[in-house]
Fold:
Amino acid sequence: MVSVQGCYAAENQIPATLKKPFSIELSASTGSTGYSWTAQFDKNFLKLEKSSYEKPESKLLGAEGKQIFTFVPIKPGNTAIEMRLKRPWESSEAKIEIYNISISSE
Structure:
């Protein structure tokens, strides 16, 4: 499995292989601020296998944890994942990150 942390290379390019899971890890302080990441993507190319949150190792107030999204490519080609950081009760995003995915059959 490929694991990608936020801002993978400067361009957010992710090479992926058909049917081999990959993960995107993003910093998140959901516990204290209410912010969380959501993923928007083309379901013809990708399946969201799992989304989880890992608590911060530090006990300091405001310490960031990780939000991890695991995807499985289901069709070769090029697509994108748009990650949006926002609070559920707000209409606008605090941050948007776009990951360009290139899916090969091997």
